[in-house]
Amino acid sequence: MDQLTLPVSLSDSAVFENFYSRGNEQSIKFLKNLTDEKSGNGCMLWGRPSTGKTHLLQAVCSSFGESGIYLSMQDLLMTDPKILEGIEQRKCICLDDINVCVGKFKWERALFNLFNNTSEYGSMFVISASAPPRDLQFLLSDLQSRYSLLTIFHLCQLSESGRQKALQLRAMNRGLILPDETAHYLLRRGRRDMRSLYELLDKLDNEALVAKRKLTIPFVKSVMNF
């Protein structure tokens, strides 16, 4: 475990209270039970980009404190797969975007060994991917079968109204008031994926604090040059 020297930081906003769960209630309930009881085999979340996989994995990891670890497989691909050795000693292991390892034998082998070692230690394993295990074309069929043993949840994309409510929830939790008309304007004029919308909200929050302004449409126009 001491071999892992990569700086791993979690987003302060990645908490369950900040996640708009409409359409994904079952997965949220399952994850909260895992974090409350601090026990269980774990699960796999899959879905398209910007459906909240990273947010939820980091929320789970945060609840375990120092005994949990979150790793983005995309960030690790340029390193040696041996970097995963020893992390099975953590109570909770959260691996994001494991699909990027498909077809890379050394990484698949490292993930296979980690899963087996995690089972021996009784650690919790929470992973995410772009597709369910049956659709991930691993070179190691045994890795696919191991992941199929996990409880699997599909994260749904939010509707138009869902994106607006999610954005307003994030604003409220930051102490901001995001009126319906302003939220609707942002959805019409900005990029529509949730990651981009949250980044836009961060920028507006900072600018509003400096200017001591409310999040009105004229203010948004002046900041974003829409």
From TrEMBL:
SUPFAM superfamilies (UniProt xref): P-loop containing nucleoside triphosphate hydrolases (SSF52540)
A biological process term (GO) from this entry: DNA replication initiation
GO MF annotation list: RNA binding; RNA helicase activity
Coiled coil regions in record: none
Domain Helicase superfamily 3 single-stranded DNA/RNA virus: 44-118
InterPro entries on file: Hda, Hda_lid, Helicase_SF3_ssDNA/RNA_vir, P-loop_NTPase
Pfam families registered for this protein in UniProt: Hda_lid, RNA_helicase
Ranges for domain Hda lid: 162-224
PANTHER family documented for this protein: CHROMOSOMAL REPLICATION INITIATOR PROTEIN DNAA, DNAA REGULATORY INACTIVATOR HDA
NCBIfam families: DnaA_homol_Hda
Protein's name in the database: Uncharacterized protein
Species of origin: marine metagenome
Lineage: unclassified sequences, metagenomes, ecological metagenomes
